[in-house]
Amino acid sequence: MSFYERHRDFVEEVLRTAPDGVRVEWSGDTLVMHGTPTGIHQLNLVLVQRQFEQHAPDGYIFSGYSPLTTPDVTKSRNPDLTYLPIASLARPGNSTPAEEALIAIEVVSPSNAGNDWVDKLRDYAVMRVPLYLIVDPREGTVTLFCEPSHDRYHARHDRKFRDSMRIPAPFDFDLDLSGLVRYPD
Question: Which candidate, 36, 31, 34, places its Cα nearest to that of 3?
Fold first, then answer.
């Protein structure tokens, strides 16, 4: 029995009563709550989102912090940004099956980098999200993971903020990284 199944009432109450700006996720037996992102986090996210928006396939739209779940409800992750079918966002409920997401995009928090680089890297691969993009303002890097299988991605591409990065189909464009901003030291 999964964490969610054992503690369904508790999780539902936390989701219902969490204050604005607090995101709630779970992975296995771990419940994770996040506070409101910083201005630099938001700026980098918007700069990336604007570029993806120009290349999103027909019928898909960006969504921020949408809960992605697996059919067996063992994981729920809320990427900073994802692209989902318009029809999935029009359905009732507060989550979307992860297999409907085209990509998960995360901007690394200065206080909890392991969540994006370890936990979400594993979980998005398990959830079969085809592309996972990590923007890391601590290091000034962007990393794209592709080809999910079981609990890992089989392809990885790294670039610096001043460079550009090729984003594969279904987006198929060069992501300009030159405007991204690092966290202060």
Answer: 31
The values of phi and psi at residue 25, to 5°, are: -135, 160
Residue 41 C-beta-side C-alpha neighbours within 13 Å: 17
Total-model pTM: 0.82
> What separation, in Å, do the N-terminal and C-terminal C-alpha atoms of the chain show?
44
CA 148 to chain centre: 14
Distance CA 75, CA 116 (A): 15
- Is the C-alpha dihedral spanning 81, 87, 92, 93 positive or negative? negative
Residues of the chain with pLDDT under 70: 1-4, 8, 15, 18-23, 25-29, 33-36, 71-73
CA 46, CA 127: separation in Å to the nearest integer? 25
Residue pLDDT, tens place only, 125-140? 999 999 999 999 999 9
